[in-house]
Amino acid sequence: MQATVKWVDGVMFVGETGSGHAVVMDGPPDHGGRNMGIRPMEMILLGVGGCSSFDVVQILQKGRNRLIHCIAEVSAERVDAVPSVFSKIHLHFIITGHDLKKSAVERAVKLAVEKYCSAATMLSKTVEITHDFEVIEV
Q1: 8 Å CB contact between 75 and 49
Q2: Same-domain check for residues 47 and 23
Q3: Are residues 31 and 46 in the same domain?
Q4: Are 116 and 84 in contact (CB under 8 A)?
Q5: What is the pLDDT of residue 130?
Q6: C-alpha to C-alpha distance for 63 and 97, rounded to whole angstroms
Q7: Do 54 and 12 share a structural domain?
Q8: How far apart are CA 128 and CA 131, in angstroms?
């Protein structure tokens, strides 16, 4: 896996992935940015949310659950020091579907966050990662 990050101007960068996708990263105005893109630390949260959501959906689909939506709300706390690393990350999954069993969703979320999500596993070495979920029946 490879990626390239190119400086554009000020504190704006364009990240390009080996798979051919790009994203703009920028800082807030008080750090010299123009607020034109995602902050790099936000990218990490998106990565954890995306990676674990991918696994939740895969596990539920393999179990033949009738899944309609999966939303991961990711929140984090950072230390008040430099570097301002994450101290806590919380993933809240909102799973919508037909005839979903709470036990199946609970199992999928636990396996995704604690076993299969590479990003969560990597970060859990230094960050407290917690998770919960809610099921919405339609």
Answers
A1: no
A2: no
A3: no
A4: no
A5: 98
A6: 13
A7: no
A8: 10
pLDDT of residue 52: 98
Q: Are residues 23 and 83 in the same domain?
A: no
How many percent of the chain have pLDDT more than 70?
100
CATH number at residue 48: 3.30.300.20
Report CA-CA distances (Å) from 71 to 51, 83, 98, 100.
12, 30, 16, 15
| 3-state helix/strand/coil string of 20-86 | CCEEEECCCHHHCCCCCCECHHHHHHHHHHHHHHHHHHHHHHHCCCEEEEEEEEEEEEECCCCCCCE
Check whether residue 33 and residue 49 sit in a common domain. Answer: no
pLDDT band for position 80 (cuts 50, 70, 90): very high
Nearest to 124 by CA among 135, 134, 132, 116: 116
Band (5; pLDDT cuts 50, 70, 90): very high
**Domain count along the chain:** 2
| Residue 49, both tokens | 């949310």
Determine the structural domain holding residue 1 and report its residue range. 1-38
State pLDDT tens for residues 39-58: 999 999 999 999 999 999 99
